[in-house]
Each structure stands twice: as C-alpha cells, then as structure tokens.
Amino acid sequence: MSLLDFILNLAGLLLWISWRNQPHDPAVTARPATLPGTLRRAEPVRARRWQFLAALGALLVVRAVAYYWVGGALGQVQIIHLGVLALPFRCDLFWSRMLPGSFLSFADMWLTYFAWLLLFSLVPSAGGDPGPGQRLVRLQLGRVARWPRWLRVALPFLVAALAWLGLAPALAWLGVIPGAAGLGVRAQQAVVMGLGGYLLWQPAVVCVLVLHLLDTHVYLGAHPLWGFVGGVGRWLLRPLRWLPLRFGRMDFAPVAGLALVFPLGRLLEDQTWGLPALYRRLPL
Fold it and tell me: In sequence order, what DSSP letters do the residues of 130-166 get, joined into one string?
C-alpha cells in the first residue's frame, strides 16, 4: 500500500504543478502576431486551470473510496509518516480515517515538495541571471521566492509547527491521536514537529550530491538540469571548501557531504535518540 500511496500522491502532485504552471504556459499566454495567428488551431482543447484542482480532489476522494472497499475487506492499515510521527489509519473506517487520511497523505507529499523548493530557492543565481531550474523554482513558489532568505529558511519549521497546531485537535477528535493534551503540550509537540520539517531536506540534499558526484566525474551532456544540479551541489558543499578534498581531477567533496548528511539524518530520525524519541517524552 505504501508504494501505491506514493504513486497516487505523485500523480496528485503533478496535477498541482500543472495547475501552478498553466498561467505561464507560452501556448496559453502567447498573443498572435499576425492575422492567420488568430485562427483556431486544429489541436486538442487544453484543460482549464480549475480542472487540474478538480481532478486532484477527485483523485484523493476516489483513492479513499478504493482503500475503504479493498483495504477494509483485507484489514489493511494505512500508515502516514509525518516527519517524526507515524499515524495509523484503518481502512475499514471511511469518514473518520480513509477520507481525511487520503488528503493528509497528499498534504505530506506537498509539504515535502514545498520544502525542496524552499531549499533550492536559497541558492544564489550564477552571475545574477537565474537559469531554467531557478526560474522553475521561482515560478512554483510564486511570491514566497521573493521573501527574505532568513524567512525562507525558517518556513519549514513554521509551516510544520503551525500545521500541527491546526491538525492536532482534528486528529484527536477523530481518535487518531490521544485527545487529553493541553495547549502547552501541543505547543511542545509543534516545536518538535517543526524541527522535523527540516528532515524533509535530507532526501533533496542526498539526491543533489549523488547527481553532482556523477556529473563531476562523468560527462552527462549539456542539459540545463546538470547546470542546476552543479550550482546547488557547489552551494551545499561551500562549508567544506576549506578541506583538501580535491586530488588531481578527483573531487571528493560530494562524498564528504554525503558522509555527513547520512549520519546526521539517521541520528535525527533515530527512535531512541532522535526527534521521535523526544516527541514520545513530551511534555518535558
């Protein structure tokens, strides 16, 4: 079920990206320069912008119904991982589990995507001219891309913490989490969940460093993707530039970066010493 959940969330995320991109689609915004250009083209009619959101909502509802029918009969449980916390959603309960669980599962992937965009938006443009990758990031973030850098750094914490403060009462009312918790306990939980928001950056950092390592030692072409990956990778590795990690044509900085990211991520995710353990010890 986890793999199917990931695929459906990815399909929903693509619908979201299409909804964000359509107002900037050249085929939609271009104005005809000549009289023949005003003629209607013999091509399929493009979807309206609202239809992408409607399709996203329909996908999440249909998924909840399918999980309820199939998973409920098989006694399945949908596990949704929210950073430091894993929430079980029984498939045999539709209104109190499957329907909110379907939307919550997609919201978790959307938050991951948003956190990745925030991380990439922190990378300064080479020569002040943003490349295709940076332009796409700014397009998806919208006005957020123009916010001060310190605020964008704090957003994963703020969004995750505030989201938990809003979700916790609803989850307690549905019986997903214990309900006997005061505002002080919820505030402490929100702080831990906010810190867990930065764990969303780990997969992005690992992917970029692995691709940067490959592109550094193997010619993969002149696609703009590799220029974007190289720029992000060099920016991530700036704290290590004082170390002698280059030997001839071999650059081991990406390897050193991966060697730091993996243990740190495992430590923060550890059930005994990491953020999940801290969450279970609350209130302090």
Answer: --HHHHHHHHHHGGGGGS-HHHHHHHHHHHHHHHHHH
| Range from 26-35, 70-79, 97-106, 110-119 carrying the lowest mean pLDDT | 26-35
What's the whole-model pTM score?
0.89
Does residue 43 have a pLDDT over 80? no
Residue 130 located in a structural domain: yes
Residue 152 lies in a domain: yes
Distance between CA atoms of residues 14 and 88, nearest Å: 26
Number of structural domains, the chain? 1
For residues 195 and 192, what is the distance between their CA atoms, to the nearest angstrom? 5
pLDDT for residue 46:
66
Q: What is the pLDDT of residue 2?
A: 85
Would you place residue 101 in the very low, low, confident or very high pLDDT band (cuts 50, 70, 90)? Answer: very high
**27, part of any domain:** no
Using CA of residue 141, residue 144, residue 149, residue 152, what is the dihedral sign? negative
Tokens of 226: 């590799």
Task: Determine the angle formed by the axes of helices 99-121 and 201-217, rounding to 10 degrees.
Answer: 50
Quote the domain boundaries for residue 219. Answer: 2-22+48-280
Q: How far apart are CA 115 and CA 119, in angstroms?
A: 6
